[in-house]
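Render this sequence as a predicted structure.
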Amino acid sequence: MEKQENIIATYQQIIQETEQQLQKARKRIRYISLLRLILFVEAVASAIIFWSDGWLKLIVFTVIPIIAFIWLVQSHNRWFYWKDYLKKKIEINEQELRAMQYDFSDFDDGKEFVNPSHLYTLDLDVFGEHSLFQYINRTATPIGKQHLASWFNAHLENKEAIEEHARANKLWHAHIGDPVFIDTFHGKYKVSDWVIHFQRLAPNHIKLLELGYHDPMQLPQNFE
């Protein structure tokens, strides 16, 4: 729980600091916009007033302000890009804060990848609303989303690879004895058809993933 609170505090701090940066950026944009307007009006007025007074005054009072105006336009654009970046940064961290409260509605659920004929994705709610895909998905492009979906659809078949994947993602399961406990062939422990799958996030913190059925002699499909 303490680790979760630290994560939430970090997101909140990032949002607060970024909002301060965003306020400064907006002030700078308003300042540049006003200065651009002043230079533009000054350049036009100077061109009218000093048109017949020779090139020197035109260069000083018209050309130089126009050059400064162009530079401010470029600076204005850079600050706009920076403002958009800060707004997106705030949005991302707010989404992660909601995700910490198990609200994943901000993320694509991959419902277009639901396939009733697939070996396991439909039974395990891999795609669709409140799915594993929506829980993990942070992709920003169609190619990235397609690649992530392909990874979920292409299950592992090698036992060593499955176990390595389970260890890397801290995936565990526990047999609950429903309908009955069954002895394994080597007699070291008992198994059952129904198991609870969970993720061990910390020594005193687990996340329940699902309650499901599988062959007691096979690794649960969460490991795939």
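Summary. Strands lie at 171-175, 182-183, 190-191, 194-202, 205-213. The longest helix spans residues 2-49.
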